[in-house]
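Sample intake sheet
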Amino acid sequence: MYLRKRGKIWYFSFYVKDERGKSRLIERAGGRTKAEAERNGRRLLRDTVDRTDYYSDNRAMLFCDFLEGVFLPEYVEVFLRPATQRTYRAAIRLHIIPELGGLPLIRVNARTVQRFVNALASKYSRSTTSTMLHVVSRAMRYAKNPCGFIDFDACVGVSIPPSTEAPKRMEPFSPNQIETLFSCFPTVHDFYAPMVLSYYTGMRQGECLALKWEDVDFEHKEIYIHATMFDDGGAGVYQPMPKTRASVRTIVISDTLADILRSVQRLQAERKLAAGKFYRDSGYVCTNGIGKNLTASRMRYFNQVCRKKFGAGSFHTLRHTHATMLLESGVELELVSKRLGHANINTTAGIYSHITKRRSDALRSALDTVFG
């Protein structure tokens, strides 16, 4: 490091390598005394130059510039699936940048993030708040390693405030409600195929919409689930990997569902014959009248009907109903968990704890009856 005086101000300077390995001179005003200039110069060296003499002035980098210029293109768009990328972009654009984006990256600390989380928790659900915290945490970890822009983890110790309301338990559809839905969406309706798939298998909406006929094994009565369909501006985007690795699974289906799917296949063949050149042979199980695959945006009408008819419920409630019926009929929790594609059995146990408790109570009564 070199020191020199110009007028009444001492300056410090040093040579570094930029990201391309080229030598570059850095010179800054250091203070009114030589000692002050040397102290400030060494501080800048410590903060901006790594062990290989490469220079990165992260002090001036705003959090928004890091998110949009580094984190999104280098991490999110490379390592995350398209649906998750969309969630990250929305979180960053709608929530994180408006509140934290104007701060220098090195000023985003645990207290800053905690205040951000507290504000979110007062307006949004715990799930939404948790998503925002996860995105910020992942971004700050990337800024620390491998980027080396900061030397601390800004989200250590940050917590989501406890909820003041008891979590609402999702109720399954009753037999009468299921009957009503089948009346609203009969065999010729576009929603019939995804509805019966979820009701008879517990498949997620995206998994139903992504299912192709090549994934249905009528001979062995099995369905191979290995993809999902997510919505992007109203268009359905096929993603060849579902929610998690555990979501890739082969499930058995009943004779009833196999017969229903054969009737859906025959209906598509009739529609193809009637539409002629206007029919789109997409290969999907869930299609409209001209063979085009259904989208999540289109399925929102199903949720609207549920709210209008029952005051609550959604397409996801079909999956919940399927799992509830299996557990109440005595099917083992582990089998239901694998059928639903949960990452671990604890997820299933947590969602359906009220059912497992009833079964435990029934077991206790049986023990009293048998053993006195």
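Comment: Residues 128 and 188 are 37 Å apart (CA to CA). The chain is about 50% helix and 10% strand.
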